[in-house]
Amino acid sequence: MLDGIRDAVKKFLTGNASYDVAVEEFIKELQKSLISSDVQVKLVLSLTNKIKERLKKETPPSNLERREWFIKVVYDELSALFGGDKEPEVNPKSNPWVIMLVGVQGTGKTTTAGKLAYFYKRRGYKVALVGADVYRPAALEQLRQIGKQINVPVYGEPDSSDAVGISERGVAKFLSERYELIIIDTAGRHGYGEESKLLDEMKEIYEKVKPNEVVLVIDASLGQKAFDLAKKFHEASNVGSIIITKMDGTAKGGGALSAVAATGARIKFIGLGEKIDELEVFNPRRFVARILG
Ligand code: GDP
Q1: Using a 6 Å cutoff on CB, does residue 108 contact ligand 1?
Q2: Which of 27, 54, 239, 265 has the most CB atoms in a 10 Å sphere around its CB?
Q3: In whole angstroms, what is the distance from residue 121 CA to residue 163 CA?
Q4: How confident is the model at residue 2 (pLDDT cuts 50, 70, 90)?
Q5: Would the CB of 221 count as within 6 Å of ligand 1?
């Protein structure tokens, strides 16, 4: 997939072709690799146009070889798409703070709910979980076990299929008990099997509960589908940030770029395994280094 890029960088830095020809060749290679890594074509073109623009307008600083400077421009522009040099601010902007997790089944939403609870608990917040995935029978039990493991209370109604009501009641209960960070785990597949029903449910929870932050959880291997999926969730519930799971696998996460483009949201965390502490604050430069090879 993106393995070609590392070779292309090497070829670009050491090759004999003239600078202009080498730039053209490199950009073609970059486009090809990003597209085959599931980044949307439109996004790839706007990125490479931006790179070309900078090449025309700017002159390299005197301490850098022209070719090295070019690679830096590529790196900068890719990183900028993910938020540049800075790691995202992950501390809640106000207290209390309600997070609603959305995403399709199997992406790791429930696992991530637990990881987030653990992350914020360690930062000193009084954290609680609400289990509103009423369509996957084991979801609530899974969440309860995680809650037990990290000593965080979990609200759920095992016999109810009223996801909206559960969310409302769970959040109200924990707010009244002065919890500072409340995380709602929602369904990833609707009982009736229809995607539109799931999105309607997300919309209703969003409108009734009014969470402070909607977090879209996506799987690193999601690929081309990431754009449309992210867009649909965004339309239903105004996605404010993104978590990419399964970054410990072989997928490079190119689809994440598309999810960012579809929502305008920032990636805040990445999941690096099944365990409760395998969650990391997202680092744009490290991620780009991974995408580039
Ligand atoms: P949900 O349907 O979205 O709630 O998904 P789950 O939380 O049940 O996770 C589905 C599967 O993915 C489980 O086997 C998890 O252990 C696994 N999983 C979740 N996050 C990660 C991750 O970051 N890395 C790996 N390797 N597996 C993960």
Answers
A1: yes
A2: 239
A3: 25
A4: low
A5: no
pLDDT, tens digit, for every residue of 170-206? 999 999 999 999 999 999 887 666 788 999 999 999 9
Q: Is residue 1 pLDDT above 70, yes or no?
A: no
- Average pLDDT score over residue span 96-108: 95
- Please state the rounded mean pLDDT for residues 11-39: 85
Q: Are strands 279-281 and 266-271 parallel, antiparallel or unpaired?
A: antiparallel
The atom of ligand 1 lying closest to the CA of 104 is 3
Query: Pocket of ligand 1, candidates 119, 274, 275: which has the most ligand atoms within 8 Å of its Cβ, to mutate?
Result: 274
Residues 6+ apart with CB under 8 A from 57: none
pLDDT digits (tens, 9 = 90+) for 156-166: 999 999 999 99
Q: Which residues pair with 128 in a beta bridge?
A: 182
Expressed in angstroms and rounded, the spacing between residue 111 Cα and the centre of ligand 1 is 6
pLDDT tier at 130, thresholds 50, 70, 90: very high
Which protein residue has the closest C-alpha to ligand 1 atom 20?
108
Where do the H-state alpha helices sit in the chain?
3-14, 19-36, 41-57, 66-81, 109-122, 139-150, 163-176, 195-209, 225-237, 254-263, 284-291
